[in-house]
Amino acid sequence: MRRHRFITSASAGIAILFAGCMSGPDYQKPELDLPDTWTQSVPATESETAADLASWWTVFDDPQLTGLVELAQEENLDLKTAVARIDEALALRGIARGALLPGIDGKGSVLSTRVSDASGGAALPDRTFELYSIGVDASWEIDVWGRVRRSVQAAGAGLQASVEDYRNTLVILNAQIASTYLSIREAQLRIRLAEQNIDFQKDTLRLTEGRYDAGLVPALDVHQARLNLSRTEATLPQLRQQLTASIHRLSVLTGQAPGALNDQLAVAASVPHPSPEILRDIPAEVMRQRPDVRAAEQRLIAQTARIGVAAADLYPRFSLSGSFAFEATESGDLGSSESLGYGFGPTFRWALFQGGRVRANIRAEEARADQALHQYRQTVLTALEDVENAMSAYREESIRAARLGEGVVSAEKAVDQVRSLYENGLVTFLNVLDAERNLATQQDNHAASLGQQSRNLVSLYRALGGGWTADADTDAD
């Protein structure tokens, strides 16, 4: 009994002595060479105040867009899948943490036994009997080298990475909702402009037919007017198809059947544009807050911890184990003091020779950590590239939209003037035809540019990682 107590006390002493030992390297945050400023910038007319990245879609001041974003955040199936992955990671961390505590198993059996003649059974009054047993087995690994704690660290970082993946899904979803909604409003605007030009060109056709009937112009003018009208009418089916596809996409993004939003979006509205106070002077350091960057870092943390898990196999693994059971040949004797049996004590296991497998496994985990580090740095560089490109695209499209708007004004004046001149016989119908075609093209290009300008702003917010809040935080310590 003294020997058991001494061994048990020695094992406890070892556990206390090495409680602070942790195999493998501790995680060190990588240094990132982030620029102080962006090489690109958004238009200088905007406010110096940065908009709230967490709810950037409100800068469009469109209640319907805001409602759709909120609906998607509740019902989108990709987002629900990401939540389920968080639940899975949370359970896996629970499994890892469970290894820090003793494992206790209940056991029981009823064993029928017959002793053979060769082993002395012939001398027994009854060589056949039943053995009843009920008790518990317990074991506990003393985490001397931190193998279990490193496993918990890796699982915790994996959990946090799944949280960041959820946030990244949220960032992407918000941008998809806004971009698709903007495409719907753009298509509706282009349809309305095309219909206006069709009505206008029908008036022109009637004008040429009247002048032809009066013998003032050749039949060629009528044919050209009809051709121009047909070309404009031919754009409508394509625009309507684009509109239908965008509504279907938006319906699915909000977790509904493709046609669920047809009635809600049937009434055309203008393309929403942001208020003056939008993004400006955002520091490059904000890249660290992008969910995909944060997820990449958490995976690096997890992989660093796995090196420690592998390195712990270089050292002996200590544990305490024991059993406590009642055993008797008669079921009625179970529970009596005479039927009690137990055993406990420390054990250790040491992989003395594994053919180099342990060190090879450590090198493999180190190589995976190098991969995770490179992926983390690459994610940061890609994030910087996304922002720079989005800033450039938004700025240039803003300039383009302004120039196209000026062109629309000029084209409208040109049509009015050339039509008056044609009615007075001062120009040929070719001038009218060119002016009307130029107006239709200019208006369509301007409408498309307005939609693209707003979508480019959405891309900028997405590149900056906007659209998530701390509500999704999960304790991964």
Description:
By secondary structure, this protein is α+β, with helices and mostly antiparallel strands. The protein has one domain (26-102, 145-315, 359-472): Outer membrane efflux proteins (OEP) (Up-down Bundle), CATH 1.20.1600. The chain contains eight helices and four strands. The chain has helices at 2-17, 63-75, 77-98, 147-213, 219-253, 291-311, 357-423, 429-463, and strands spanning 103-114, 128-142, 317-328, 340-349. The chain has a four-stranded antiparallel sheet with strand order 1-2-3-4. It starts with a helix and ends in a 14-residue tail after the last helix.
For the largest beta-sheet, the strand count, sense and barrel status come to: 4 strands, antiparallel
The CATH homologous superfamily is termed: Outer membrane efflux proteins (OEP)
Distance, first to last CA: 41 Å
Uncertain regions: pLDDT < 50 for 5+ in a row? Answer: 1-19, 44-51, 472-477
**DSSP helix fraction:** 55-70%
CATH topology tier name? Outer membrane efflux proteins (OEP)
CATH class reads: Mainly Alpha
Number of helices: 8
Which whole number gives the mean pLDDT?
86
Question: Any guess at the CATH architecture?
Answer: Up-down Bundle
Looking across the biggest beta sheet, what order are the strands in? 1-2-3-4
Supply the key terms.
alpha+beta; 58% helix; disordered N terminus; 477 residues; 4 strands
List the helices and strands and how they pair.
Blueprint: H1 2-17, H2 63-75, H3 77-98, E1 103-114, E2 128-142, H4 147-213, H5 219-253, H6 291-311, E3 317-328, E4 340-349, H7 357-423, H8 429-463
Antiparallel strand pairs: 1-2, 2-3, 3-4
